[in-house]
Structure to design on (940 residues):
């Protein structure tokens, strides 16, 4: 067992976990942040994507101990209070989700995609960048639309700041 | 149409919890004192279980119990059931072997459970499972249809000699023989419909709790039909009587058919929760999903179609072998029979049809309904046949279809189904226009100049949804009725709760069903709640599959609403001192026609509950229920056209365009309908290009992870161009047909027809991987 100290959604936490514990299990089991999902056992599906120090990470590929000292944001920490993140709003407005299971990971990946491409995104790039996130419901059509929509919303929001 | 009524593109009410991480799925459920289950599964496709030694495992940290298949037999827990009895052509009932929840003696597929470890933590259960020693005596296995039916094949069940479950037929053999004797041309086609793994993104899970004081069980489970689960767990598996068992299916992360069935793991979790006196959680991992979720499709077929000299179809003969895997899953027997052969007429006038279906046991994971269930197999067969025929007869594939379309309705096919309505010309014309079919030859020529092989493929599907009239399916062997129930509670303040037996696992019922209420009663959807997925709340339900939620579940809501309206009108008339026949409902107001007198719904509701001034003899309250049994299936139909390019150097396929023109009858929320089509198309295209479960000769599943089984990803798919044509379904008051499966039913033939058109070789099986396509081009 080890004590892991990290910041999750802006709050400092200290958690005692077995050394083999993955970050995703620390979030789900110890912190009850069940918005981060597990959809596979080979780090393929992306349902568990969170942000670690601002970068999208599959939280099943990282030991909890490796996240010590990091700043982790999960889907629960993305909105500002009642105000949805533009990516969340775009997923809702474009019907970019159905069963909702892949959605948290999809949204966290998509935010990172927009950050990395500085809002200069086209459909082909979005489709390529979403390769690490599997959705079985939507056929990706509306997810791609949502990401492109959010990219322009985020650009506008940035310009306004 | 109001802003939230029928036909409005209302954003989904349920989305906020999903996009903020507040969805509540089964694995999110925690209980005080909860323990964790981990199953010990057979590594062999066929073996005798000689013994299970758990002595060392029991000494490991946190281990509470190791329970085996023999114990579940000793406790008289029932075997798994198959709920649809099929009769072979010789009149004999189908031949089934027993399927115990954990195998006490013989394992028949890789992944079948033989024991379960219950421990304080999930990791402790997994660790201890490593220490359980199972002594297997390996037996030869039959891993596919060919191996299972050859003389001397390993026998799976003594009850089913030759591994044959049934040898069934439908149609008129003599009439077909006669048709072929008059044929000017006969077209033949051999086809494999590849085995698929459903792979809903949420793996199956169960949390089971036994309350000793009440002698009452609770099961949280990933189910598309919690009431059916309770019925089966109670009546057949002897877990507990129905009034002592509550089944809750909370947010469920996709189903596609695979969460219809009541699997061994859920049963064992319930049984074990009493045995160990603790709540038990089991959450499957993806590897377990690959090995134990019911697979889909897996047909091998031979088809022949007879044409007259004018290219009109005279007859169709089909012989199909269907792989059931090692055990008969809940609705497996119906899939290649009444959900498949009954759709073999497609959109065409085919005077004579004869289909034979042989169901086969193999040492593989059980096969059951997966999105479309039988109808994709029928549609793929017919639509590849039409394309093959057009090429052989040297006519345009679209024209050959049009020449043979059914144009008058109702139309009785030779294979049971009576199509109520449709306009097949409208949908193919819409799709041909959308893709500029006429301009294709020029585009093909240009692509050729660029070194690419361009092809176009048409697929005109029809399916039977709204499953199903209970009397009809009962006469065909179904063990249950397939109606749906609804309850509408208008609360004293005028808010409304709709309790439905349908279950949403992505379909958006919380929005669509509210829109039906908003349309009729003028209530904002924010004041309507949809309650589903809990046997303690909802009176009963048959659940969601077969694109039935709106046509059957939605109609039950309409029927309950009609009763609410009738009573509310009486109350309003009494309050307004008017005649009941003069009351009309407009925008949530009960008005006396031709006057300015009115009373709002909340005031009517309040009057119903205060009961101070009700008509003489009227019961207080405003709550009504309805059970609705459909009178016919519904028949969604449409045309899909795919245009693509093949790189002859690599065999890689790239989409140019994919257009869909569907007729689903009336659309309640077009945005949600489009989403359903997108998802279905992705699964159909996945089957055509990417997906396929592969077993080796010993029965090991080679494609048992997302590393090996190719799930469609964003960059494998195009954006889709959708449109709708409309003929209203005459069989239900909403005029709706069902849209959940269409894409998966129609897409695969369009893709394969396009590739075979591009490469000029019709011999191509799914999935059409670059390797297969390259070999089809270069030999």
């Amino acid at each position: 067992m080890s004590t892991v100290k990290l910041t999750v959604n802006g709050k400092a936490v200290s958690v005692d976990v077995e050394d083999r514990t993955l970050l995703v299990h620390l979030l789900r089991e110890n912190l009850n942040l069940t918005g981060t999902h597990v959809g596979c056992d080979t780090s393929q599906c992306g349902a568990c994507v969170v942000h670690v120090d601002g970068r999208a990470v599959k939280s099943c590929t990282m030991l909890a101990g490796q996240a010590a000292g990091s700043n982790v944001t999960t889907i629960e920490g993305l909105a500002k209070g009642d105000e949805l993140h533009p990516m969340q709003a775009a997923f809702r407005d474009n019907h970019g989700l159905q069963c909702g299971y892949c959605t948290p990971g999809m949204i966290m990946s998509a935010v990172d995609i927009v950050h990395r491409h500085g809002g200069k995104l086209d459909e082909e790039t979005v489709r390529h960048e979403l390769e690490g996130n599997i959705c079985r419901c939507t056929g990706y059509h509306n997810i791609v639309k949502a990401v492109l929509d959010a990219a322009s919303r985020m650009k506008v929001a940035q310009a306004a700041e | 149409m109001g802003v939230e009524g029928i036909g409005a593109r209302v954003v989904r009410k349920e989305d906020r919890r999903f996009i903020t991480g507040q969805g509540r799925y089964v694995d999110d459920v925690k209980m005080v004192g909860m323990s964790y289950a981990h199953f010990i599964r057979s590594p062999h496709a066929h073996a005798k279980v000689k013994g299970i030694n758990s002595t060392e495992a029991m000494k490991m940290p946190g281990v509470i119990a190791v329970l085996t298949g023999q114990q579940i037999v000793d406790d008289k827990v029932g075997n798994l059931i198959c709920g649809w009895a099929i009769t072979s052509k010789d009149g004999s009932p189908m031949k089934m072997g027993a399927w115990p929840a954990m195998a006490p003696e013989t394992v028949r597929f890789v992944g079948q459970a033989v024991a379960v470890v219950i421990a304080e933590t999930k990791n402790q259960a997994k660790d201890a499972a490593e220490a359980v020693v199972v002594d297997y005596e390996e037996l030869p296995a039959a891993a596919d249809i060919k191996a299972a039916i050859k003389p001397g094949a390993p026998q799976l069940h003594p009850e089913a000699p030759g591994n044959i479950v049934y040898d069934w037929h439908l149609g008129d053999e003599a009439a077909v023989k006669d048709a072929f004797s008059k044929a000017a041309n006969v077209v033949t086609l051999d086809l494999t419909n590849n085995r698929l793994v459903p792979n809903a993104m949420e793996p199956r899970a169960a949390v089971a709790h036994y309350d000793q004081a009440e002698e009452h069980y609770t099961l949280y489970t990933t189910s598309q039909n919690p009431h059916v689960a309770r019925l089966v767990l109670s009546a057949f598996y002897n877990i507990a009587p129905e009034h002592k068992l509550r089944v809750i299916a909370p947010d469920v992360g996709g189903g596609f058919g695979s969460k219809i069935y009541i699997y061994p793991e859920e049963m064992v979790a319930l049984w074990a929760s009493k045995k160990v006196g603790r709540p038990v959680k089991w959450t499957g991992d993806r590897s377990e999903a690959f090995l134990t979720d019911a697979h889909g499709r897996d047909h091998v077929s031979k088809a022949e179609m007879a044409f007259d000299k004018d290219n009109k179809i005279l007859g169709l003969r089909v012989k199909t072998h269907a792989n059931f895997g090692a055990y008969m899953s809940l609705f497996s027997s119906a899939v290649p029979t009444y959900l498949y052969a009954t759709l073999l007429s497609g959109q065409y006038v085919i005077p004579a049809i004869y289909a034979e279906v042989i169901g086969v046991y193999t040492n593989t994971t059980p096969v059951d309904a997966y999105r479309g269930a039988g109808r994709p197999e029928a549609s793929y067969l017919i639509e590849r046949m039409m394309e093959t025929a057009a090429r052989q007869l040297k006519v345009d594939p679209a024209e050959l279809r049009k020449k043979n379309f059914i144009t008058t309705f109702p139309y009785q096919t030779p294979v049971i189904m009576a199509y109520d309505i449709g306009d097949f010309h409208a949908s193919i014309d819409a799709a041909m226009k959308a893709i500029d079919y006429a301009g294709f030859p020029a585009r093909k020529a240009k692509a050729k100049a660029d070194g690419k092989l361009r092809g176009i493929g048409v697929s005109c599907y029809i399916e039977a949804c709204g499953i199903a009239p209970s009397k009809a399916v009962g006469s065909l062997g179904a063990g249950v009725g397939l109606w749906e129930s609804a309850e509408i509670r208008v609360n004293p303040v005028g808010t409304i709760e709709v309790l439905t037996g349908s279950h949403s696992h992505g379909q958006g019922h919380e929005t669509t069903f509210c829109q039906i209420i908003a349309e009729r009663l003028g209530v904002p959807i924010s004041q309507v709640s949809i309650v589903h997925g809990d046997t303690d709340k909802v009176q009963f339900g048959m659940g969601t599959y077969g694109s039935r939620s709106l046509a059957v579940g939605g109609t039950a809501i309409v029927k309950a609403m009609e009763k609410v309206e009738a009573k509310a009108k009486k109350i309003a008339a009494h309050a307004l001192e008017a005649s009941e026949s003069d009351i009309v409902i407009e925008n949530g107001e009960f008005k006396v026609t031709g006057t300015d007198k009115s009373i709002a719904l909340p005031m009517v509701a309040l009057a119903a509950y205060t009961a101070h001034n009700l008509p003489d003899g009227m019961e207080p309250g405003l709550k009504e229920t309805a059970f609705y049994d459909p009178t016919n299936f519904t028949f969604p139909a449409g045309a899909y056209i795919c245009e693509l390019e093949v790189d002859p150097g690599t065999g890689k396929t790239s989409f140019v365009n994919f257009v869909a023109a569907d007729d689903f009858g009336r659309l309640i929320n077009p945005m949600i309908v489009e989403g359903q089509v997108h998802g279905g198309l992705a699964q159909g295209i996945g089957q055509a290009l990417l997906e396929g479960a592969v077993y080796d000769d010993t029965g090991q599943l080679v494609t048992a992870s997302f590393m090996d089984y190719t799930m469609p990803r964003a960059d494998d798919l195009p954006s889709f161009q959708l449109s709708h044509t409309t003929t209203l379904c005459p069989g239900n008051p909403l005029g709706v047909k069902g849209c959940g499966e269409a894409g998966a039913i129609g897409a695969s033939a369009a893709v394969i027809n396009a590739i075979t058109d591009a490469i000029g070789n019709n011999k191509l099986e799914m999935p059409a991987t670059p390797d297969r396509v390259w070999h089809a081009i270069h030999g």
Q: What stands out?
A: Strands of chain A lie at 2-8, 11-17, 49-52, 55-58, 71-73.
